[in-house]
Structures are given as C-alpha cells and as structure tokens.
Amino acid sequence: MKKTLILGLAALATASLVPLAEAGEVKLGGNYFGRWQAYDANMIDEAAGTTTGEGYVHDLQLNMDMIASEKSHAHMRVLVLDSARIEGADLGSVSPTAASDQVTQTTATAAEFGNIPDPWEIRQAWLETEAWGIGIKFGEMPLSLNDSILVGDDLSSNGGLLLSKTFGDITAVVGNIRINEDSAAGASSREGTGANSDDANLWATSLFGKAGLADYNLTLAYADLGKASDFMEALEGVCAASNAPATCTTTDGSNLWVALTLSGKLGAVNAVATGIYENGYDLAVDTTGAKPKNLWEKSGMLGALRLNGSTPFGEWNSYGFIATQGFNNITNDNMIWSATWDQGGPGNVDLMNVFANSAGAAGVGNTSPSENMSGLGVGLKVKTGGWTINPMIDYAAVTKNSATDTLDSAFGGSLLLSTQIQKDTTLLLEAAMIDPKGINNANTDNAYYAQAGVQLVF
Length: 458
What we know:
By secondary structure, the protein is mainly beta. It has five helices and 20 strands. Helix content is 7%, strand content 49%.
C-alpha cells in the first residue's frame, strides 16, 4: 500500500449564500461541545498503549459572517481549544502553567504533559461576491465535491480562487487551488530553481446540473506539482520506500482525476452513486533510467453507492464502496459513512478510519481511508420519547493485501442516542466497537469508545 502523503489539495463547489440579512450586518454563531470519553483505538494487541484514554475534552467553534449584501459577504470559521483536555488546579509548585492554564496555553509541552492544542485556530476565511454575472469565491474556503468523497469539508481550508457561472440548469465552476507556495528561490533543498517550479497547484472544472431524473456533479481535476516543490520531494521519498528501485528521481509530477456523482430517487429510495478515475502520478524516471512502477504511478478507480429511505418507525440508510489498490485520492479525505467511520466533535475517535489508515504496508497505512479499501454498512434512525436512536453496523476490508500488511478487515458498529435537554442544547450518548482481523501473525485487539457529551448551538 501507499505510504502517507497528505497533499492538502481541494476541489470545487458552487458559492453558497448565507441567509438574507441587512447590509452591513455581522453575524456571530457557532457551537460549544464538551464530552467525557473513554476509548481504546489500538488495533494491534496493546502495542505501547498509546491509543487509549479517558477524560474530558471540549472545543468551541465561532462562525463569523460579514454581510455587505445578498451577493457580497465574507466569512471566518475559528476553532477554539480543538479537542483540548479539560484539566487544571492550583496545587502550588507541582502545578505547572502548561497543565493548569489550559485556556491561554499556546505552546505545546509534549515532554511532560502531551501536546496541548493551540487555543485559537482560524480554519477558514474567505470572500464571496459576484461581478457581471460571474460568482467569485476567494480565500481559504470550505469545499466539498462528489458526495464528499473526492473532497470533503471537515473545517479544512483550501486556498485559492473559484469562478462560477450558471447557464440555465447548469452551473460551471472553474478554479485554481494553491496547494503549496514555496519560496521564490525554490524549496529548501532545491534552491535556485525559480518561483514557478517550486509551487504546486490544482486546476479543476466542475459541472452541476440535472439530467432527466438525476442531479449530477462532473469534475475534472489536474494536479500540477512543480519539480522543485515540497510535494515532489515527498513523492520521491514514498516512491523509494514503496517499491524498488531504492531511489526515485522525479523531474516533474502531475495527476488527473475524473469524477461523476449522480443522485436521485428510485421509487421510495434516495440514491447517490459516485465513480472516480485517477490516472496515476507521473514519476518520470528512476536512477537507472527506468520508469517506476508502484502504487503511486498506477491508475485506479473508486465506486460508491449510498441509499436511504423511510420506514413506518424511522429512517434507514446504507452504503457501499470499493477502491482499487492503485487508487490515489486528491486529499486525505474524510468520508462520512457513519459515526463508526467519522465520529466528529472534540477528541473524535474515528475507529474505522483508524483501521483503514493502519492497514497499510508495515503498519504505516494509506494516504486516506478511501484508498485500497472496501466497505459496507447499514443503519437506522428512530425517534421515540424525545430521543433519537441511531444504530449502525459497519464492515471494511483491504481490497488487495500486500506482503507487509498487518490488518485485513474489521467488523463493528456504533450506537448514538441524543435528546434535546434545553433549547438548542443536546445531550449525546455514544458508543462504538470494531473487531479487526490481522494477517501475517498480527495479534489484533478490539477497539472501542464510550462517550457522553453536551452540545450547545448558538
């Protein structure tokens, strides 16, 4: 499987408008989320015990919307105390500032107290407007594409420029996402190569429209990784580590993705189908003059289907996906199939994501859980007595194992219960467990979490 390489790319979405408001208005909103949690996310039998924990965690998200008019506005998303531990007491000389002054602590002290998150993180800041009928979106923006599989928004920022135009029932979006801007002289180990060759960009075009009974989203994305960029240096490293030859020398790097998502109703069932083709990275030649042949260079495909509908006692949903061994996604995406995959919130323990990202060569894992992975799941959402009850059963497996894999598959599920205890204030009780299967004599261990939390939306 592929070694870790987080490209931090982005894709496209139409510019979304905030609710109508008076000109010059500044709106402030967000949510505070605190929870108690106990977990063991370790997949291999108690290896160092580094993925177990128990305690209180919390975060605060602030959403600021600066509105000049219906079509012209700016936005900022700030995360405060992201997954920070709740702790601190004045115990005299044995109580260091790093432990007892959590709210204002800005410097991590990993040696004694673990990594303490910076308290203020501006995750996104962007402008939306329109000029002569063309929509403009500029800055560090949230983007989601192709059912959040090609690109998903999890408060990540994607810096660049998007232009959109609607023609009847079709909206076209084109954009340039600045993946990485190195110094004008070149990346640190490649000085003197010039400003153009040390940058990395994503160029993309996306169409949104309706064809017959189905809505569609068609995307063409091209990554242009400059020969002197940090990403090309990283690709050389993973090329060498992933497969012979021992050294890869790349002179240029590029990749191409084509994705199509169709959504609509099939009788009483809502369906969303996504297909993605990835062309493989151009890794030029290795030190012997031969073109490298490994999982980065190979092309790949992903197919996914999501279904949901209603029953007399609630709602049901299901999903399935499969990605080939050579598939590389644009980002280290955050596919949200269920809480077993992506729990969200402070201190989130994403068990299936942990499994998928641990099931790679030498235990290092994939770039993202959508690569060389297959999954199935089914769940219900029932409302009774003021509570929402959401059980889910999930299964995931490596599409094609390699000789150095440690994990093969995992079966498990999650159970979420929630109820509103005050206006815009929700109590959440959550639990999940998965049972991974090891290969090559790997001793596996069940992973779980149990949590109770309160979320206030304002």
